[in-house]
Amino acid sequence: MSFFNELARQYIDGEWLTGSGSWDIIDFNPYNGEKLCAVTVATAAEVDLAYRAAERAQRTWAEAGPYARRTVLENAVRLVGERSGEIIEMIIDELGGTRFRAEYEVRAAQEFLRAAAGQTLRPEAQLLPAAADGKENRVYRLPVGVIGVISAFNFPFLVTMKTVAPALALGNAVVVKPHQNAPIVGGGLVARIFEDAGLPAGVLNVLITDSAEIGDTFIDHPVPKVISFTGSDRVGRHVAATAAGLFKKTILELSGNSALVVLEDADIEHAVRAAVFSRFLYQGQVSMAANRILVDRSVEKEFTERFTAEVRTLRTGDPRDPDTRIGPVISEFQADALTALVDEALAQGATALVRGRTRGNLVGPTVLTGLTDGSPLLEQEILGPVALLIPFDGEDDAVRIANDSPYGLSGAVHTADAERGVRFARRVVSGMFHVNDSTVQDDPLVAFGGEKGSGMGRLNGEAAVRAFTTQRWMSIQHGRTAFPF
């Protein structure tokens, strides 16, 4: 566990420091319970140190110019490639992800870093016409300054990189607070990669701590101008309210309750494969996962038989075993909560077509049907391997059910007519929707984000440029303005 112990510290102003808090965050392997490392938490004093370091370093980093910044990002791409084997092992150990899932995350992080390297050259100044003679209007797109990033546990290396990389590329400095279930992969590892890539001290800082120690200090500190948060809608609402009162911009990537819809003309075999992947990737601990699988009643029997047969083949166990498809959920608390949710649904009349056993943090896949209207399970995010099958009668009914959720992050529809799928997708209130594919999609060039309780703002591509820069108007009067007094 040398990698974990080496990175189990705070990273502030280019130095690896021990936190000054009075307690430790213990990082466990969720599969076997092995202790990976202990991190003494950062206090509010260290939050201030990190933000002040970022504030000092940001101006020099911005003035270094896009080509210097691009070199650092390109170095980071190379280092992730060279160290991919080590990173994959760390993801398996800290997160309980299968090897396939870990490899997927590392490849995706590389793509986002590569895209960010290109974004260093993106911000442009505009020359706009002016109503007054002899006047010139320029609009510059400049870095916002310092950005606070609160990352999630489920894809922490990717989620942190897809925010940090474009923010750095555009000339900002960043302070990251990783999730306490992923302090190394989502925090210390990212800091080490950029440190070795040549990023100047202070431009990126990592604080491993918890709100129980620092309260709202990470959000309401005067230095950061933007807070980027990935996590639950419950916490996201608090982040938004706190930041709004201080006129800080927020980018919120929150909970999901996505629907994968199978119309009567769909390729059933393909739809089944997409649904299994969409629901059970990383044990279902993905905000874009297909919580609800909606199937036209005319093909319900065929789909259900094929889907349940496929789910029964999913092996639950050691994430290091190449045959394992479902590893452990992130914690014992989560395992117990999932078991209670299923028990409650069954008590309310639902039927378990497949019922997985819970053994420690291993939760086998479950498929439920027959949920009653208004069931709490239909309206909430389920971070675990539990699929809900819901029949519908025609497109209008499917749209109604898909929209009957407080969330609107992702979704998918399967049909033989792609344009029919597009028309269907336009009727669903969701930040992202996919035709004949999985609900779990991400692309460095395409705006990523949700509607309703699934968040606010967008990341990736041009959306990241808008999120992490500000516009400044400067006018030049080359003649003489005739003032009225």
Question: Could you explain how this protein is built, in words?
Answer:
The protein is an alpha/beta fold and about 475 residues long. The chain has 17 helices and 24 strands. α3 (about 65-80) runs antiparallel to α5, α6 packs parallel to α7 and α11 packs across α12. The longest helix has 21 residues, at about 100-120. The mean pLDDT is about 95.
Please outline the helices and strands.
Layout (H helix, E strand, L loop, with lengths): L1 H6 L2 E3 L2 E3 L6 E5 L6 E6 L3 H20 L2 H17 L1 H12 L3 H21 L6 E3 L6 E9 L2 E5 L5 H14 L3 E5 L6 H13 L7 E3 L4 H4 L2 H4 L5 E5 L2 H12 L4 E5 L5 E4 L5 H13 L11 E5 L3 H13 L19 H16 L3 E4 L3 E2 L2 E2 L2 E4 L6 H4 L6 E7 L1 H10 L3 E2 L2 E4 L3 H9 L7 E2 L15 E2 L2 E2 L4 H7 L1 E9 L8
Parallel strand pairs: 7-8, 7-10, 8-9, 10-11, 12-13, 12-20, 13-18, 17-18, 20-21
Antiparallel strand pairs: 1-2, 3-4, 5-6, 6-24, 11-23, 14-17, 15-16, 19-22
**What share of the residues lie within helices?**
40-55%
End-to-end distance, in Å?
74 Å
**Rg:** 24 Å
* Number of E strands: 24
Q: Which structural category fits the helices and strands?
A: alpha/beta
Key traits:
485 residues; 40% helix; alpha/beta; 6-stranded mixed β-sheet; 7-stranded mixed β-sheet; 17 helices
Short description:
The protein has 485 residues and is an alpha/beta fold. It has 17 helices and 24 strands.
